[in-house]
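<tokenise_the_fold>
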Amino acid sequence: MDITQLDTPSLLLDVDKMEANIKRIDSFAKEQGIAWRPHIKTHKSVEIAKRQVASGACGITVAKVAEAEVMARGGITNILIAYPLASRKKLERVAELLPLATIILTIDSAEQAQHVQAFFQQIGQDIEVWIKVDSGLKRCGVDPGEPTLRLAQHVSENCPNLRLRGLYTHAGHSYAASTYEQIEKIGRYEGECIVASAELCEQHGIPIEVRSVGSTPTFQIAGKVPGITEVRPGNAVFYDAIQVGLGVASYSDCALRLISTVVSQRATERLVFDTGSKSLSLDQGAHGNATVKGFGHVVDHPEIVLERLSEEHGIAAIQGRTTLGLLDRVQIIPNHACTVMNLFDQVYLVKNDEVIGTWPVDARGKVQ
């Protein structure tokens, strides 16, 4: 059916744009001779994860055990949990997935490593682990260089059930950059600090096979650093208004859109859409990004700025004149595709404004 037959708000996925974005990542990885392991927090879809793997991805990245459960039970067989786990309950859930998939765990401190070691020693199993390195985000991770070496030595010498195979980092602070030159600087350091830390470990007899970097704004920069073996972009499967603001994508690359209806208007002062914070989210950039204007980009209507969101209302200012009125429909490119995808049960698949099917958002709400 035509998209005009959909009720609003509905979430639309342009399949051709998504496939082009996936192909772009795969082509970059092939050109560099490296692997790619997309973060599925963006789409939370088993079908999209399968398409990424079929297009060349070596596996996927998740943030939470619940996401890993959905993906492993959906047939994905190589999963990095990019989040430090220590509680027994979560480790028990990880162990239940090992017959289904290779699960890779994150280590970012000696104390946490001991919790993971004690659990897997008790159940008599080994598990692959990677050390998380902080390349500047100041979130999880150990500092590069000597601190990384000391943690690698601790794991190698004191944790016989943990098979240390890689180092990885995420330069999420690139989202706070105000110029592309800053993104380039962050990306180069992201790659260089991982390579230098890996080489330091190897000088001390600890082999580091995987040197992995992430972040959609920086993966094509950090991924070119000699010695990097893997990139982990997540948002690049869709792109969004934040990526456009950062200069790493254009609106024509953005595969995810909301279709919305004007439900109220006040002369030439404002319009109200039926897309509030429960469909667009209040996200304007988690790490200080200031490049976005409002709470979503209204396609083909630069005079409309979504200035405020309440739960079910998107209140837009009219800057100049507009042709939009009551019951008119628009498409809105979200600021942050990852948070918006997590608000919907399903996404409508679109080609040339025709709805060709739906996919469930399988891992929606999987935050444990």
Notes: The chain has a mean pLDDT of 96. Residues 3-10+249-360 form a domain with the Lyase, Ornithine Decarboxylase; Chain A, domain 1 fold (CATH 2.40.37.20). Residues 26 and 314 are 37 Å apart (CA to CA). The chain has two domains: 3-10+249-360, 39-233.
